[in-house]
Each structure stands twice: as structure tokens, then as C-alpha cells.
Amino acid sequence: MMDNKTFIIAGIIVALLIGALAVFLASGDPDGLESTALVVQGQKTITGDTPADAEIHEETAGRFSYSSPMPDYSLGDSLGPLGGLIAIIVGTILAFLVVLGLAYGIKLAGKPAP
Amino acid sequence: MHIPDAFIPIDQGLIYWIIALIFVALALRWARNELGEDKFPLVAVLAAGIFALQSFNLPVAMGTSGHLVGGALAAIVLGSPFAAIFILTLVLVVQGIMFGDGGITTMGANIINMGVIGGFVGFYSFKGLMKVTKSMPISAFIAAWLACLIPALACAVEMYLAGTFPLNVGLIAMGLYHAVIGVIEAIVTVAAIRLIMEVRPDLMDTGVKTSVGAGA
Fold it and tell me: Domain residues for B110?
């Protein structure tokens, strides 16, 4: 049986491989929610292909808006797939660390003071 | 099915946030009381894996793509719907803040759909199906499929309440796309459970281990 260290390293490697594959192989088609929005806005039919120029009209009046540092898992067109790889690696490691950190934090906070 | 800020009015987003925070608080309590330190590596690796899998959009025909959500996987592997809420909430925070995947005011709704509904549907349908079928792959497959479909339908209702989608078109399109996406969710979930059982059976808490030697 794998020890904890091997399990963590193997797990992160598998996650990073999946993420790296995603950068190159992920489908550019809209996801289910976006696709539904396009159907509602009359830009595609339910079972039809998504036209290349289809764009979701977003309501912005009275809605919150926020610019993330790495929108759409990308660092911009100039870096291309490399930017995508960096974004996925940062995100995967961050998800790992945030969950591990919070799990330890809760345990520490939950322990009675010595 | 990450809802962007533009799809829900701020006041409605706030209501979803309040509901979500109640479940997040319960998930934190679960982590403090139920999550042993021996499970930390599994929880953290699941978070990394779910983040990576969520970035992988696979084509599902009909001009649409979809990715795994992971609520059923987290809940089944860690034996609690709150595990899904714990992990999915943090994954959604990273996605929303760092990558603009899912909005900030809509994060509460996303936590409710994928973490709370996905986790509860995934966990309890798995538990029920295990009793009936005694088969992990069949139970996990159906549970994961439901844990993708039902949050999508909830999302369609939220979109209707927000005035973004009409109810019938939203339910039909969201339901249809996620019924297909759910098959990917189901296959990956069964494969991931198999893989974890293979390398670290001790970390699994699915009730599928043999009862021999267990108990007093």
C-alpha cells in the first residue's frame, strides 16, 4: 500500500496530467449552462451545433462584475498554451493547498488550549 | 454549470450566499469533528483532482461540452455529503477568484448546486443504491449521474427565478445537456473510486469494504 507521501505526490501528478491534457484537448464548445443561454437567446438550437460567432449576451446593468487575474484559465493570447498550463498548475496546487491548509487550520482551532 | 455574475441579480445572489454559508458552516463543523487527520492527504488530493477535472471540458455533441463536477465522488469517497460541500466550496472559491470561472455574487448559488445538492444527491443515492444492488460500480455510476443532472435542473430553476432563462426551455436544455455530461461524470467517478480503492483502501469510507474483521 502507498504511504501518504507517495499517495499525495502520485495524486498531484495525476491531477496535473489531467489539467495539462485539458489545456490542449479540452473542447471549445460552450458548457451546458452557456449552451442553454445560447438556446434561450436564439443563437443555437437545442441539439444543433454552436455557430463559431455565437456570443452570450450578458446582462450587466445592476450586476456585479469582477476581473480575475487569470480569466478562462489563460494568461492571455501572447502566452497561448503555456499560459494555460501555468494557470492550471497554479490552480491545481492552490486547490490542494487551500483545502489542506483549512483542514489543518480547523483542527488547530478546534483543539482546546494546552 | 458555473453561474457567472451576469446571470443572477445581486439581491438573489445574496440569498443563495446566505443559504450556502449555513451549509458551509456545517461542512466546517464536519471537518472539525469527523474528518480525521489520516484523511487529510485524500481530501487535499481530491481537491486538486476535482479542480483539474473541472477544467477538462469534453465534447458531448449538440454543440456543447461538459466536465466532471465531482460532488458525488467527494461525498462517496469520504462518506459524507459535507465532504463534497467542503471540497467543492474551496474549489469554487479558487475558480471564481483566480480564474473568473463562476461569479462572485453567484458563488453561493454555485456552492448550493454543485456542493450541497451534488453532495447530498450523490451520497444518499449511492447509499440507497448500495443497499439494493450491493454493487459499487452500479451505485456510484447512477449516483454520480444524478449528482450531475439534479444540480443542473436546480440551476435551471435559479435561472428562471433570475429572469435569465424561461423555465421550460431552461429545464429541457440544462436537463438534456447534463444528462449526457452526467455519463462522463459517472464513468470518471467510478474509475476514480476504483483507483483510490486500489492504492489506498484504508482511506475509503464508502461502506463497500468487506465487513469481515470490521467492528468489535
Answer: 5-200
CB contact under 8 A, A27 and B65: yes
State pTM to two decimals. 0.93
Could you tell me if residue B24 is inside a domain?
yes
Question: Are the beta carbons of B63 and A35 separated by less than 8 Å?
Answer: yes
Task: Say how many residues make up chain B.
Answer: 216
pLDDT tens per residue, range B117-155: 999 999 999 999 999 999 999 999 999 999 999 999 999
Farthest-apart Cα atoms in chain A, separation: 64
Distance CA A97, CA A50 (A): 37
pLDDT, one tens digit per residue, over B31-78 is 999 999 999 999 999 999 999 999 999 999 999 999 989 999 999 999
CA dihedral over B4, B6, B9, B11, signed as positive or negative: positive
In-domain check, residue A63:
no
Contact A58 B178 (CB under 8 A): no
Q: Which residues in chain A have their CB less than 8 angstroms from residue B40's CB?
A: 100, 103-104
Q: Which residue of A has its CA nearest to B105?
A: A64
DSSP states of B38-49: GGHHHHHHHHHH
**Structural domain includes residue A53:** no
Total domain count, chain A: 1
Task: Using CA coordinates, name the residue in chain B closest to A47.
Answer: B62
In the block, which residue shows the cell 467517478? B189
- Whether B162 is covered by a domain: the verdict is yes
Q: Domain for residue A97, yes or no?
A: yes
Domain of residue A19: give its range.
4-31+72-110
Contact with chain A for residue B41, Cβ under 8 A? yes
Is B205 within a domain? no
